[in-house]
């Protein structure tokens, strides 16, 4: 449910980094292939190629979308641990991070469920985080900062919707 919510709520052109397995999903894979850069996470060469494609995308003035958790969260925790890749890319390019929360999608289509329940998915853009002038040494701090901002918003939204 995240992909359609993002497509509808984002007023800018963007490309998403997606795991290669999603490209094989009937209809969804075909449609999203026009908007995604696929990566085989088990293949280091594929990861490098995908990062290079994302950097070219940024150079062409198109924003990119990366899910820092890397997969859907089926746990009771607000967020899964974040991967380093999105933050390394932001530091290397000096581009800002615009955190996005997609809330209530899990209620409509829990992980492992085929059907979709009726309801509303909400999108929340959080304040932009400047990454200009950051170095590789700043990566853990940047990742933790974004994690805490996003986690706090998810906890707030969960409390308000209970």
What topology, given as strand order, has the largest sheet? 2-1-3
Note the overall shape: globular
Count of domain modules: 1
- Proportion of residues in helical segments: 40-55%
Please give the count of helices. 6
Write down the oligomeric state.
Answer: single chain
Q: Give the uncertain stretches in residue-range form.
A: none
Strand content: 5-15%
Tell me the radius of gyration: 16 Å
Average pLDDT: 82
Q: The biggest beta sheet, please?
A: 3 strands, parallel
End-to-end CA span: 20 Å
**Count of DSSP E strands?**
5
Provide the succession of SSEs: HEHEHEHEHEH
Backbone structural class: alpha/beta
Task: Characterise the protein shown here.
The protein has 162 residues and is an alpha/beta fold. 40% of the residues lie in helices and 13% in strands. It contains 6 helices and 5 strands; from the N terminus they run αβαβαβαβαβα. It has helices spanning 2-9, 28-32, 44-59, 85-93, 105-108, 139-161, and strands at 14-19, 36-39, 63-65, 100-103, 122-125. The strands form 2 sheets. A 3-stranded parallel β-sheet has the order 2-1-3, with helices on one face. Strands 4-5 form a two-stranded antiparallel sheet. Helix 2 links the parallel strand 1 and strand 2 (36-39).
């Amino acid at each position: 449910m995240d992909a359609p919510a993002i497509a509808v709520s984002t007023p800018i052109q963007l490309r998403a980094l997606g795991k290669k397995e999603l490209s094989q999903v009937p209809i969804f894979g075909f449609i999203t292939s026009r908007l995604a850069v696929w990566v085989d996470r088990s293949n280091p060469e594929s990861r490098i190629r995908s990062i290079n494609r994302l950097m070219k995308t940024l150079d062409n003035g198109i924003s990119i979308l990366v899910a820092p958790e890397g997969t859907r969260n089926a746990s009771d925790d607000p967020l899964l641990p974040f991967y380093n890749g999105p933050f390394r890319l932001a530091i290397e390019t000096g581009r800002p991070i615009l955190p996005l929360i997609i809330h209530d999608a899990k209620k409509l289509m829990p992980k492992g469920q085929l059907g979709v329940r009726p309801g509303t998915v909400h999108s929340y853009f959080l304040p932009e985080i400047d990454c200009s002038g950051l170095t590789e040494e700043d990566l853990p701090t940047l990742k933790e900062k974004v994690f805490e901002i996003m986690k706090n918003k998810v906890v707030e939204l969960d409390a308000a919707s209970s």
